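#struct-help
A.M.: can someone run this one for me? Single chain, 160 residues.
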Amino acid sequence: MNRPIPGTVEVAVRHILSDKVTGFLVRTRRITWKDSVFRVRRPQSGKQTVELTCPVCDASLLAEVRTEARTLRTRVVLRTLAALCTIVFFAAFAYAVHEGGKTLPEGQSLPTLFPVSVVSVFVTFVAAPVLFVKSRAYNGVSLLDAPKPRRLHALRAVRG
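D.P.: on it. Structure tokens below:
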């Protein structure tokens, strides 16, 4: 078994070899790449910049690695925001259904909060899942600058 070493993160550097989109009505995308996995040590405090080398074109990539505590804090904040968005979604949805279902006398309009609740329903419907997925994917490693060659590179954490 390949167990993760405490205080490190595994990062894959991918070099995209081809990216083809085919089809007219139904589009299919085929991406081929070659990757290399690096084990990067997390700093004791703050951020650390590390240099990684692409396995195919030897391009130098700069990545910023954050501490384990900072990474965990960011994940917790993103999940908390996702939970708050979920609560706001259900509260705004309930309010919109409650106020929208009323029969109003002629000449009277809906309360000012009704359009706000409708907008917040749509915003939080998108924001909650996005924040939750971002919190699951956040690993504390980010690519600082794009390489000079034409091929695209991507950094991703390897789940162990």
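A.M.: thanks! The mean pLDDT is 82.
D.P.: also worth noting: The longest strand covers residues 8-22.
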